[in-house]
Amino acid sequence: MLVFTGLPPPARGVPSARKSIGRSTFRGPVRTGLVVVGAAIAIIGGGLFLTLFLVSGGPTSTTRLSFDNPDIPGHTVWPEVISRSTTSPTSIGLSWSTNAPANVSLTPAGPCENSLGVCPIGPPLFNWTLATSGKETSNSANASAYILDVTNPGAGTLQFSAAVSVGTSTTSPFPAWAWGLIALAGVVLLAIGGIALFLGLFLPGGVYRNPDAEAIRTRPPPKSPDEGPPPS
Questions:
Q1: pLDDT in tens, 37-48
Q2: Is the dihedral of CA 17, 19, 22, 24 positive or negative?
Q3: How distant is the alpha carbon of residue 201 from its chain centre?
Q4: pLDDT in tens, 59-71
Q5: Is residue 66 within 8 Å of residue 217, measured between CB atoms?
């Protein structure tokens, strides 16, 4: 008598082909919590660095001064002192105009050695020769006072007008060691945020779970064809 037993059943504990074949190697969505937390920490660290660069030098204020002289005689020099300030300026700008060619210069000044007042120190910061207008700005100003000299080389009367802008920076609100701590905190937060972002993006959820665990099936051992029905 011929007995057809069919193909042997899959072994116990072997994953079903229906679940394993064609399964993507991507194990699930990114870890959203890590991505959000990492981005927030990185933003806080970047904010600390931005605060360090914007506030460490203290706030900056700009003072604008106007100088006008409608009657400078010929072949004379008209000096004007830009008053000494309590703090050295960080920037200075000069814009001027005349009705005839003139020589104009702006020179750093300091206390005179043997007399009261201020005296020029060093070469002029700005200098124009036989010009009728000019405009310059310097961000490397470090003198506490400046002398504006206007020379009328002609014989006629010279009309002169100018505007000077002086930018000063106040003292930093925190000592240097405090800014060092802020910079260190920014570096640490950026590093932690970067690591959290990396793990959140490249460490998918469910990485520790067997993806085929739900597909494992267990079958009873095959029966011999000579075995009868189970007893009732």
A1: 888 888 888 888
A2: negative
A3: 25
A4: 567 788 898 998 9
A5: no
